[in-house]
Design brief:
Blueprint lengths: L3 E2 L13 E4 L4 E4 H4 L4 E6 L5 H17 L4 E7 L11 H10 L6 E3 L4 H5 L4 E2 L1 E6 L4 E5 L15 H12 L11 E4 L6
Parallel strand pairs: 4-5, 5-6
Antiparallel strand pairs: 1-10, 2-3, 2-6, 4-8, 7-10, 8-9
């Protein structure tokens, strides 16, 4: 279990566009298809990472709480499935059903989307405003597997609450921490 921090894409960055295979609907979906009217959370996750497994239940609860408030959630897996077959698209679909994901779970086979977002770890969270401008990137909260801190999503929720209320989002943002994205060998 490698402790890899997120790279912290610069605030104000416009969300790179993409069109990826959604394992939950078996259709191609673009950022434009999926973005929220008031905000969009993009999270890089995968099936096997213990950091993601640790947060999964609360991620689903958070999505269910904020989706009715016009913030969409998009999960993307960019891992190399040749060397990490547990992250294959058909298994992504099973995880999304098992975990009751209320959001698309997209497969980034080329890994180009992860590179465009400068994603480094799973989980890696990004919050964009209605104009797809980055307003938050970093951790879900301070909870990690085995550290005894309850999973709450407080960091991401605080940013979403500030976005929805028109308040200033705290710029003191902590990187996420998790397993490194499993890059394909070049």
């Amino acid at each position: 279990m490698a402790n890899t921090p997120s790279n912290m894409l610069p605030i104000g960055t416009i969300a790179p566009n993409f069109k990826l295979f959604d394992t939950t609907s078996d259709q191609q979906k673009s950022l434009q298809d999926l973005k929220g009217a008031k905000g969009t959370v993009i999270m890089f996750i995968c099936n096997h990472c213990p950091f993601v497994k640790h947060l999964n239940t609360e991620i689903v609860k958070t999505a269910m709480e904020y989706q009715p408030k016009d913030i969409s959630f998009i999960a993307i897996s960019s891992n190399d499935v040749e060397n990490y077959p547990q992250d294959a698209p058909h298994l992504m679909k099973l995880i999304s059903i098992e975990q009751k994901y209320t959001f698309p779970y997209l497969y980034d086979e080329s890994q180009e989307v992860a590179k465009a977002y400068d994603a480094a770890c799973t989980p890696d969270f990004y919050l964009f405003d209605a104009n797809l401008r980055l307003v938050y990137r970093g951790q879900f909260d301070n909870s990690r597997p085995g550290n005894g801190i309850p999973v709450s999503g407080v960091d991401l929720k605080s940013a979403m609450d500030a976005l929805l209320s028109g308040n200033k989002i705290n710029i003191d943002q902590k990187p996420s921490m998790g397993c490194n994205i499993k890059w394909k060998k070049q």
